[in-house]
TrEMBL record:
Protein name: Methylthioribose-1-phosphate isomerase
Physiological role: Catalyzes the interconversion of methylthioribose-1-phosphate (MTR-1-P) into methylthioribulose-1-phosphate (MTRu-1-P).
Gene3D superfamilies linked to this entry: translation initiation factor eif-2b, domain 1, Translation initiation factor eif-2b, domain 2
Gene Ontology terms: biological process: L-methionine salvage from methylthioadenosine
Residues where substrate binds: R64, G65, A66, R98, Q212, N263, K264
Gene expressing this chain: mtnA
Amino acid sequence: MADQYAQPREDKRPTEIPAIRWEEPPEGPVLVLLDQTRLPAEEVELVCTDASALVEAIHSLAVRGAPLLGIAGAYGVALAAARGFDVEEAAQALEGARPTAVNLSVGVRRARSAHRAELTRTGDPTAAATAALAAARTLHQQDAEASARMAAHGLALLDELLPGGGHRILTHCNTGSLVSGGEGTALAVALAAHRAGQLRRLWVDETRPLLQGARLTAYEAARHGMAYTLLTDNAAGSLFAAGEVDAVLIGADRIAADGSVANKVGSYPLAVLARYHHVPFIVVAPLTTVDPQTPDGASIEVEQRPGFEVTEVTAPQVPVAGAGGGIPVAPLGAQAYNPAFDVTPPELVTAIVTEEGAVSPVTAEVLAELCARSRQV
Ligand code: MRU
């Protein structure tokens, strides 16, 4: 058997990966995205000059992950305003681009409110566009700060739950600097453990069907020199059974008022495995991911994605075309079940770590208290 603890080959390229940035060239403002569909093969930038290009980038997952979707949504409104497009129409299209991550509508609404308020106050579209951009920049900055605070709270929680260090952490999907204004959510905690010399191994679920773990988390972990090992999602069970997992750390796309957590499909089975094997299952998410308007898990809209993502393997470099432009791996016409997310009930969640601290056990009351406390700050 290959040594799963072998050190991965070091990747010395810079660790700063700006997933999104606003630029103002002479031709007019643009939103520049690192195209995440092309990683890790190529670092290609995608330049959006209007909100519809950004909506397309959101659909294709060129830009993805809950906190980053919020930031992108806010900049998208600012872009529409700065380029003189219909801001309300752009906001509606952006908000509807993906349904599960509540951060997207939080970001869109913040920029739209700033725009509306300034337009009402001054009647000046330029001033209103400036206000929308300022709101987007603030959200971007706040997310970076939240990320650093979550990392610190998460590390403290790991120290408390697993004294002695040497953590072997399993993660799913991608939750690092590719999804954030800072270093991310769950991956930022793992990175803090790595920097503190307490990470023995990061287990990276490949995350079928779009491979956010294999393509993106492994890409980030390599740049940080973290000791990581990739596994297929269905190898997680035997890894738990072998006693090789000390904690599961994941992010969230929406946390309902009762503490139910929607995250990348495959998170719920990990929570069940973690409970069976007495391993902490920890969710790391900023408060912008907590949605008091969604009462429970059953009320969370789970995005259903096209079947070809399951029936074909997509590789942008290979010019073979199935219905989705990929290499068919199933018989022609095969039906596929392809929810992008699943929902973990609060009783399976050991703790939720936010920028305001960790809550455990996860109940509607403690979450409401946390949200109320953050509104007073
Ligand atoms: O479909 P994706 O790639 O946007 O899904 C992303 C996830 O599920 C992440 O785990 C979640 O957004 C949390 S990111 C901090």
